[in-house]
Design brief:
This protein is α/β, with parallel strands linked by helices. It has 26 helices and 30 strands. The longest helix has 58 residues.
Length: 853
């Protein structure tokens, strides 16, 4: 290719001044000598949207308006929620006490009783007193002469009736040659008939043996058997009448017990009915009355000391207390509460949230439970108020999320052990469900909220309010002064030294850097609080009087030092030449890109050598990272944009036919993002134009198909990463970085970088188009088309266009040579197989082949 004339230019005036690289907080904004002079200010800073959303959710009482608080860790989500709940007027409508009592009709289904706050404790005490009164007075009633005489009269009456019945029958039996005997059957005896021989009862077995031996008349034996069958039927009738007499006797005894005991029992219970005007309590007291009358014997027995029994040491044991059924299990006591509950559950496992039914060992070694073993969880304790839960902590516990959804969906809590999910080891106890009036505040992040909203049908029905916490807020005077008050609050609460205006200003400047925007402040106050604590530590080390800017800088420096081991290791590799990075001179087909390494707690920038090759072919632009399966989808998209740019700018009058490969050298991990797409485009253009690139300039920025440079993230870290490498290899005064114009407002560079730029030893350029950037990188004018659509001679775009023409013509000639069927005289036939011609190209603009990966 013949040598082409190149039109060189001076670097255009796109360079940024030092004042544009860092925002400085004016110290005269603060009218105090130290934060100790400030008034303590409470409240949440910079989260107006989230606060409004939370209050809306708390005030709407309809079902399903629970709240999901989303945001990054450290933005004050939990603190904000607790502050809002603290400031709410929660003195109205105190929640009820919740009690479980024995269900005398079905002991496996304990009854729930709800009473106004404080009355649950009173009912528990009153039931204890009631039992003591029963134990004290009932024995006297049923041991009185009048009661004993009544029972004696009933006993004699029914005994006489039973005696007469049996005497008549025994006379008939005796006349028939039989006698009535009692046969032992296990632990019981029953009456039966036996033949009477010589005045003695003889079993039929012996008579049959005697008849077989000729000692007893067989005819007489048959006659006795017939008589036995007749008399046995009469005996059964007599026994039935006897049982009827016994039932009537018992009923009369029960009637007598009610006649003598009911007035006293009813008198004691009536006092409780008058005190607790509750249908549930009234029904419970009726069951107490009937149970007491049916089981009066437990009050008549002498008191015996019962020892609990356990099979092994450490096992909970059950006692055989006959009065346990009268006890009251006060699971939620709100007697001392002056506000509705607001509970933050820090350990949301199944038992802590939903309660449990504890088990004890009975005398047979079996695990048993009753109503007194029911324990409340935080959901029941928070009923009538508010419950705050962390999402990740909840979903990491078995069965918690499933049970929480069910509880909120149906608005009631069923206390059961998690064993029910295993269908094994279950308890038969099923306490009455509790109707809930509860607001649940769930704290998580936006990603989890969207996952649940889109893939869990129940979630959107029970969490209808989402309160988004922003990790940034506007940088204005009011928020800056609020920052000073926040520093005051931390120092006051933790007994830390006072901060001077310069110290507060440095904190605000670091907040701007955390926010990645000069017009924003970070609202991740946990990180800011840590900075305040660490700066206070370094001030105390120096035995200063107040924290100033130097202490903040020291805290930031030490924080970076604790975390940047990997960054220093990479810089050592670059210094020693193990990672090949050029920071001086000019080279063809290679450029310095900028990448971000993010390890969560620490992110840093690093230059990356990117190379390219261009040759004759039709493969288009080959992304080597993609071919090696090291490229992410966004990076792949960026490579495709390069093809779109080339087609749009250079392939309107010819097909785009080339084979180009782009590679991140010495990259052994995954690559993603499009922040290197402009860098790759600069590299491709210079390679096509065969113009070298200045290696002392690094580039970052995204690009679109129109050649416009688009903003990227991590601009501060990227600039500082290249600066550190240049400083390590020696600053020449020429090095610098090209960034997108839109990222200028994101700059909050380190002070040493700003000072070096101010001295003219390092440079930062902001560009808006590919043409502006390529002129800085190559020193060659980009050039424009004239009215006829021809590129200005000697410009870089002209050189690229000419190179693409050569590639298109070259591949056309290559295929034409392959298509010739006849050989010229003297030529030798080729041993290679004939390659078919390429398919016919469409003539419509934009349909040309080539450029696509």
């Amino acid at each position: 290719m013949k040598k082409k004339q190149i039109k060189s230019i001076q670097i255009p005036p796109k360079e940024l001044t030092a004042d544009q690289l860092r925002w400085h907080c004016p110290e005269d904004l603060f009218d105090f000598k130290g934060t100790r002079d400030l008034k303590t200010k409470t409240g949440i800073i910079g989260q107006h949207r989230a606060i409004r959303s939370i209050k809306t959710g708390l005030e709407i009482k309809s079902p399903g308006y629970n709240i999901f608080v989303s945001g990054l860790t450290g933005t004050g989500r939990s603190t904000t929620v607790q502050e809002i709940l603290k400031d709410l007027d929660r003195r109205k409508n105190l929640p009820d006490d919740k009690l479980y009592v024995n269900n005398f009709k079905d002991e496996d289904q304990p009854r729930l009783i709800r009473l106004p706050a404080g009355q649950g404790k009173e009912l528990r005490e009153d039931m204890g007193t009631l039992v003591e009164l029963f134990r004290k007075h009932l024995p006297g009633i049923f041991e009185s002469k009048k009661y004993k005489r009544r029972i004696q009269e009933l006993t004699e009456t029914y005994q006489n009736e039973e005696r007469e019945l049996f005497q008549t029958f025994e006379k008939t039996v005796s006349e028939s040659g039989f006698t009535v005997v009692r046969i032992q059957m296990g632990n019981l005896t029953r009456p039966d008939l036996m033949p009477s021989i010589d005045g003695k009862p003889v079993p039929f077995d012996e008579l049959e043996n005697s008849a077989g031996e000729g000692k007893f008349d067989p005819d007489k034996l048959e006659e006795l058997k017939k008589s036995y069958n007749r008399l046995k039927g009469d005996l059964d009738k007599i026994l039935a009448k006897g049982r009827d007499i016994e039932r009537r006797f018992r009923k009369e005894v029960e009637k007598s017990i009610r006649e003598f005991g009911l007035p006293h029992i009813e008198e004691q219970i009536e006092d409780l009915r008058a005190r607790y005007k509750s249908e549930a309590v009234n029904a419970y007291l009726n069951e107490i009355r009937d149970y007491t009358l049916d089981n009066i014997d437990i009050f008549l027995k002498k008191e015996e000391k019962t020892q609990p029994m356990a099979l092994q040491i450490g096992m909970p044991a059950v006692t055989t207390d006959p009065f346990r059924v009268y006890m009251v299990n006060l699971v939620v006591d709100n007697s001392g509460r002056t506000k509705t509950p607001a509970i933050v559950e820090t350990a949301p496992n199944y038992k802590n949230l939903f309660g449990a039914i504890e088990k004890v060992v009975d005398r047979q070694g079996n695990w048993v439970s009753d109503f007194m073993n029911i324990k409340a969880g935080s959901i029941l304790r928070a009923e009538g108020g508010y419950l705050v839960i962390n999402l990740l902590e909840a979903v990491s516990e078995p069965f918690v999320w499933q049970m929480l959804k069910r509880t909120l969906k149906y608005g009631q809590l069923e206390i059961e052990n998690p064993e029910v999910f295993f269908l094994m080891g279950q308890t038969a106890l099923k306490p009455e469900a509790v109707k809930l009036d509860l607001k649940v505040v769930l704290i998580g992040d936006k990603r989890h909220y969207l996952l649940l909203y889109n893939y869990d049908e129940d979630f959107k029905k029970i969490f209808k309010i989402c309160a988004d916490f922003n990790d940034r807020m506007d940088r204005n005077d009011r928020n800056i002064l609020d920052y000073a008050c926040f520093v005051k609050r931390i120092t006051e609460n933790e007994n830390l030294p006072s901060f001077s205006p310069s110290g507060v200003a440095a904190v605000v400047e670091e907040s701007v850097r955390m926010a990645d925007r000069q017009d924003k402040l970070s609202s991740r106050f946990s990180d800011i609080a840590d900075l305040v604590r660490e700066a206070s530590y370094w001030m105390n080390r120096e035995k200063g009087k107040s924290v100033n800017r130097e202490h903040i800088d020291k805290a930031v420096e030490e924080r970076v030092y604790r975390r940047n081991l990997i960054e220093e290791r990479i810089r050592e590799y670059i210094r020693d030449g193990l990672i090949m990075i050029d920071t001086a001179g000019e080279k063809s087909a290679q450029i310095n890109g900028l990448a971000i390494y993010d390890y969560g707690e620490f992110a840093f920038g690093k230059p990356a050598k990117i190379t390219a090759t261009v040759s004759l072919g039709k493969e288009g632009i080959i992304n080597i990272e993609r071919e090696a399966e090291l490229s992410g989808k966004i990076h792949d998209k960026g490579i495709q944009i390069l093809s779109g740019f080339l087609r749009n700018r250079f392939a309107q009058d010819k097909p785009l036919t080339l084979s180009a490969s782009i590679c991140f050298e010495q990259s052994y991990g995954g690559i993603d993002g499009d922040s290197a797409s402009s860098t790759e485009l600069y590299l491709l253009l210079s390679t096509l134009a065969q113009v070298p690139i200045r290696q002392f300039i690094a580039v970052t920025g995204s690009v679109n198909q129109q050649g416009e440079i688009q903003p990227i993230g991590g601009v501060n870290q990227k600039i500082e990463g290249f600066y550190d490498v240049c400083r390590l290899k020696r600053l020449t005064g020429k090095q610098g970085v090209i960034i997108p114009r839109q990222n200028v407002k994101d700059l909050q560079l380190r002070k040493d970088v700003v000072e070096t730029v101010n001295r003219g030893r390092f440079h930062i350029w902001a560009v808006e188009t590919v043409d502006e950037g390529i002129e800085i990188l190559t020193g060659v004018k980009a050039g424009k088309r004239n009215r006829k659509g021809v590129w200005e001679t000697g410009t870089l775009n002209y050189l690229v266009n000419e190179r693409l023409k050569e590639l298109a013509t070259g591949i056309q000639k290559f295929y034409q040579t392959r298509e010739k069927p006849d050989l010229q005289k003297g030529d030798r036939p080729s041993k290679e197989p004939r390659i078919p011609p390429p398919p016919r190209q469409p003539t419509r603009q934009g349909d040309e082949e080539g450029g696509n990966d």
